[in-house]
Design brief:
Layout lengths: L5 E6 L14 E8 L2 E4 L1 E3 L2 E7 L8 E7 L3 E3 L12 E6 L5 E11 L2 E3 L2 E3 L2 H8 L5 E3 L2 E3 L19 E8 L16 E8 L6 E3 L5 E2 L3 E4 L5 E3 L5 E2 L3 E4 L6 E3 L5 E2 L3 E4 L9 E3 L5 E9 L6 E3 L5 E8 L6 E3 L5 E2 L3 E4 L6 E3 L5 E2 L3 E4 L15 E10 L13 E9 L4 H4 L5 E8 L10 E3 L8 E5 L5 E4 L3 E9 L3 E4 L3 E8 L9 E3 L4 E2 L3 E5 L5 E3 L5 E2 L3 E5 L2 E3 L5 E2 L2 E5 L6 E3 L5 E2 L3 E7 L2 E2 L2 E3 L5 E10 L20 E8 L22 E4 L7 H5 L8
Parallel strand pairs: 1-6, 5-9, 10-12, 11-13, 12-14, 13-14, 14-15, 15-17, 15-18, 16-19, 17-20, 18-21, 19-22, 20-23, 21-24, 23-26, 24-26, 25-27, 26-28, 27-29, 28-30, 28-31, 29-32, 30-33, 31-34, 33-35, 34-35, 35-36, 36-37, 37-39, 38-40, 39-41, 40-42, 41-43, 43-45, 43-46, 44-47, 45-48, 46-49, 47-50, ...
Antiparallel strand pairs: 2-3, 2-6, 4-5, 7-8, 8-9, 55-56
């Protein structure tokens, strides 16, 4: 410490009057430090020194002039740090005293411009300017080259950088000592600085344009008093970081991103105890050692994405109320605790999936609205009752257990699209799916529920019903806009199944091979669009009268009759496959069919698949109208007399007969040669 030099003088009058000893004033006060003389302003009882923010007054020497024959307490020799406020008492010869209050007023030295410092000498020369506020940017080091700057300690007087602080790779310091007094910065950017290990800004309260640190070897980040970031925090591929401290951070205007670079990432905990708002996206990904995410005060974010963190056990966001875009939490094999108990609104996609240890949805008790697709892929869950507040979902995908959808999602009244998958759910869990009270439902898909369950819907369903490899019993659904049955699977043998639908206003597609017995539609009368039949199952549609396009590759392995006894009108093309790799038909029965507005095709699927059992077309004797007819690959077919009433409805160029037992020309038929002569 510098030796304190003190000069204490007294003042007297020039006249010869008798001394009365009543004065007790400080007449002047000066400090001297490092060759600089600082004169105080004395006003009434105050002593004020003006000094630059960067100048320390510790160890300064003081010189004071007081009235004659006075004493001053405390003695100036006892004071070593003139940075601090002091109180002095001056006592006159007559015993009267006066108190003075000493203080320092700091003045800011302002510099301007974008400063680039590439060597230690340049840095020290800049520091000698004693600038405390830089109105511009400060760049330390170069992007390429050899190490050139080893220490930032000379910059300890800097408090404000209005633009960016950039630390480039040629900075070789282990820490950022010298930045401890920085209070505000436009932005901080650190990239590929391999020797820097500790980043600490103990006084920094505000970052205007964002914090970006990428591809570094930093082990710790300390921002203990940082309260606001008016842009984004982006930390990517900094795999050596083991701890971060944003303990005072309350608001991030844009994104908060921490992304590991692979299996080397070492960060174990992310805790921001005061963070309330994230205006942009939060993404925490590829952090294999991460065990804890704690955001106890977070209320809102634009979107949240947390995935591929193999050891993550706890996510605590108990006050989170809204995510204006997406919320995705998935692929976390060890996650056992997820607290989003205040969450009520998600504007976009909500995805919870591949979380094998999450066995309930108690954390979703406040959820009311999901504006996008809500995917709940949690096979260990056995009940959806905690979701009783959920009312509105754009699209809902459920791969979670429940027994009664109506009872457990009692408030759900608005869903556009609903998919329920039982592929990973314990068999027997799902017993009943009732969508009869859900308004606005446009698409309903049920997939891979192997135990028998009841599917109940409204009488008139103005949407798509898609049943995929499931063992269903249907209630309601008398009229459906679009209907698809694809595959069938059951935990026990099912010989026959009956579907009560009466009308499909648009397309009806059926593709089932793995069902024994007969699939019956005893009440079906009309398909307004395309009827597409495929597979090996036997079907029964005894009342079907009218369809749009009729396309069938349906063929049982053991043969039988392709039977549509009431079908009258096909408003489009009609294709009936009589032989394909998996099956064939012995006969066709369409005795009432009178009109095909498009092309009628009857025959084997190709020249490799020829039907051998159909010998005549007598079932088409009621047919009077067709736009064209092709008969193909029926090698047993020799009798075309069933087409006598339709021949005149199309021209010769619209007739084709190929690969059959008998292949008459159009003229042959006009000549009455309907049957092959022996």
């Amino acid at each position: 410490m510098a030796v304190l030099a003190i000069v204490c003088l007294t003042a007297c009058n020039d006249d010869d009057s008798i001394f009365d000893g009543v004065d007790h004033y400080i007449l002047s006060f000066e400090l001297q430090k490092d060759g600089r003389l600082l004169k105080a302003i004395i006003s009434e009882d105050s002593i004020t020194i003006k000094a630059a923010e960067t100048l320390s007054l510790e160890g300064a020497s003081a010189a004071v002039v007081t009235s004659e024959h006075t004493t001053i307490e405390p003695a100036l020799s006892t004071i070593t740090n003139w940075n601090n406020e002091q109180t002095f008492t001056v006592t006159g010869f007559n015993g009267e005293s006066k108190t003075y209050y000493y203080s320092v007023v700091r003045t800011r030295v302002v510099g301007s411009g974008d400063i680039v410092l590439t060597t230690q000498d340049e840095l020290e020369a800049f520091a000698a300017l004693e600038i405390s506020e830089l109105q511009g940017s400060l760049t330390i080091g170069s992007v390429t080259g050899s190490d050139s700057i080893t220490s930032l300690e000379p910059l300890s007087g800097l408090k404000i950088i209005t633009a960016g602080l950039v630390i480039n790779p040629t900075f070789s310091g282990r820490n950022l000592n010298g930045m401890e007094n920085l209070e505000q910065v436009g932005s901080i950017e650190i990239e590929s600085v391999n020797k820097l290990q500790e980043v600490s800004f103990p006084s920094l309260r505000s970052i205007i344009l964002g914090l970006t640190i990428t591809k570094s070897k930093i082990t710790s980040l300390e921002f203990p008093v940082l309260e606001n970031v008016d842009n984004s925090i982006t930390l990517k591929r900094n795999d050596s970081i083991t701890q971060i401290n944003f303990s005072s951070l309350k608001s991030i205007v844009k994104d908060f991103i921490i992304e590991g670079g692979g299996n080397a990432a070492k960060l174990t905990a992310i805790s921001l105890p005061l963070l309330e708002n994230i205006g942009g996206d939060m993404s925490l990904t590829s952090l294999p050692e991460l065990e804890l995410v704690s955001l106890p005060e977070l209320e809102m974010a634009s979107s949240i994405i947390i995935y591929s963190n193999e050891k993550l056990e706890t996510i605590a966001m108990p006050k989170l109320q809204k995510s204006f875009k997406d919320l995705k939490i998935y692929s976390l094999d060890l996650l056992t605790e997820l607290d989003v108990s205040s969450l009520s609104f998600i504007g976009g996609v909500f995805y919870l999936g591949n979380l094998p240890l999450i066995a309930n949805v108690d954390m979703l008790g406040s959820l009311t609205t999901v504006g996008g697709k809500f995917t709940l892929n949690l096979p260990a869950v056995q009940s959806l009752e905690p979701l009783s507040s959920l009312t509105d979902v754009n699209e809902l995908f459920l791969a979670a257990g429940f027994q009664s959808l109506t009872d457990e999602l009692s408030s759900l009244t608005n869903v556009d699209r609903l998919t329920i998958s039982g592929s990973e759910i314990e068999e027997g869990t799902i017993q009943r799916i009732d969508v009869s009270n859900i308004s606005g439902l446009e698409y309903l898909r049920i997939e891979r529920i192997y135990n028998s369950f009841v599917l109940k819907g409204p009488e008139n369903f103005d949407g798509t019903l898609y049943l995929y490899y499931s063992n269903f019993e249907i209630e309601g659904f008398q009229e459906v806009k679009k209907l698809t049955f694809y595959g069938f699977d059951s935990s026990n043998e099912v010989t026959d199944k009956e579907i009560g639908v009466k009308k499909v206003t648009e397309d009806f597609s059926l593709n089932i091979s793995n069902m024994t017995g007969t699939l019956s539609f005893p009440n079906l009368e009309e398909v307004g669009g395309k009827l597409n039949l495929d597979g090996r199952v036997r079907i029964n549609m005894p009342k079907l009268k009218n369809v749009g396009v009729f396309y069938s590759k349906l063929a049982p392995a053991e043969g039988g009759t392709f039977d549509f006894p009431s079908l009258e009108t096909i408003d489009g093309d009609c294709y009936i496959c009589t032989k394909i790799s998996w099956g064939y038909w012995d006969d066709i029965n369409m005795p009432k069919l009178n009109t095909v507005t498009g092309k009628l095709t009857i025959g084997g699927y190709s020249s490799y698949y020829k039907n051998t059992t159909i010998s005549n077309l007598d079932s088409f004797s009621a047919l009077t109208t067709a736009n064209a007819i092709t008969i193909q690959y029926n090698i047993g077919l020799t009798n075309y007399s069933g087409l006598q009433n339709v021949l005149s409805s199309f021209s010769a160029d619209q007739w084709k007969s190929i690969g059959n037992g008998y292949n008459p020309t159009y003229q042959d038929l006009l000549n009455g040669e309907w049957t092959q002569e022996d």
